[in-house]
Amino acid sequence: MDDQTLSAYDARAKEFVERYENCSGGISEWFEVAFPKKCRVLDVGAGSGRDLALLLSGGWEAFGVEPAPALIEEALRCHPELEGRLSQDGLPTLSTIGDQSFDGILCSAVLMHIPEEELFDSIFSLRRILKPGGRLLVSLPIEADGTPTCGRDSIGRIFNGLSAGKIDWLLCRCGFRKIGIGQSEDALGRRERRWVTLLFSLEGTGGRNIDRIEAVLNRDRKTATYKLALFRAFAEIAMTHYNWARWLPNGKIALPVDLVAEKWLGYYWPLFESDRFIPQMNGESPQPGGKKILFRGSLAELARLAQPQGGLSAFLVARNGKALSPDTEAQMKKAMNDIKTAIIKGPVVYAQGGPGNGCSTTTPAPGASSWGQTCGRSFP
User: pLDDT tens digit string along 343-356?
Assistant: First the structure.
């Protein structure tokens, strides 16, 4: 939670607590399904203490953390039975909570306030404190039309636009498995807002994503190195440019084709620049008229033009400084277009076994932003 959001809750703590104490329903309807009785449950972002008190009275060994001191004070005033069970702490660190110390975690209306750059750290903290096989119950706000709530509200609280699809993807990457999902009306009666609730189980090492990678790779006929290059690019983008991903309402992820193509340019350049012909597909031949991968000719020519100036590294410096010669720039555009065509018509489609199996691509209109849609749910 950023400072401005924390300040908003602190300044209006009494108002928020009174409002939430007077409503019913909401995420508490999931408690019986989510958490076995008598297990240890931590309410992360306990707020007014209402849900924490319901857990405690319902037979769970419940504790809570809340980052806003004024909310803690109001929660204890309303629920004195929480004395000794509610303390000040919060995401992304949960620094006062020990490893694998809880069987269940409640995280209601919290992750929506976490800045984008702190989401991964927050998820790793939730994973750290949860026992293997433990349950994580999450709720997120959505607008009446189903889109995630995004931006700052009138009192300064941040809403990061986190969607159900994105949190599912992020948690699955960290070893969680979604076992339940549902939508409900807003407990405060706000017509413009609904809530999506998701229930996850911590599976351990996250092997499901490895299984997905293996399945996709095994489905490939391996006639070329495209699939391996695509996975390598996805892995690098996930580590260094994950904010470029667009999370689509249908559960897929869109990445800019230009970004993937630029990775490929760097991967294949040294191979095509070599004096030795290194085949990149079955039957590829250096002989005139022989079979070749789609972009070998244009990228090899680009490498040839750049070689007198210092090769790939010098080319990248000149390109980033907008100092390419007209001939080199024209050849770069041709090579990039060929690479993008190869990406879209090759591994993006056939990673899913063909266009009929739920994989689609989008190509930009002239002058439009170059985004390609991949089957993101299949790629961890």
Answer: 988 877 665 543 33
123: tokens are 């998820």
Interatomic CA distance for residues 120 and 240, integer angstroms:
13
The DSSP code sequence of 72-113 is HHHHHHH-GGGTTTEES--TTT-TTSPTT-EEEEEEET-GGG
Distance in angstroms (rounded) separating the CA atoms of residues 89 and 96: 7
Contact predicate 171/123, CB 8 Å? yes
**Percent of the chain residues past pLDDT 70, beyond the cut:** 86
**Would you place residue 258 in the very low, low, confident or very high pLDDT band (cuts 50, 70, 90)?**
very high
Tell me 148's DSSP state: B
What domains appear along the chain, each with residue ranges and CATH number? 3-202 (3.40.50.150), 217-349 (no CATH)
In DSSP notation, 297-339 reads: HHHHHHHHHHGGGTHHHHHHHHHHTT---HHHHHHHHHHHHHH
User: To which residue do tokens 């070893």 refer?
Assistant: 175
Contact 203, 177 (CB under 8 A): yes
DSSP 8-state code for residue 286: S
For residue 287, the SS3 value is coil
Instruction: Give the 3-state secondary structure of residue 182.
Output: strand
Residue 152: strand pairing partners: 158
Q: Could you give the CA distance from residue 248 to residue 271 in angstroms, rounded to a whole number?
A: 35
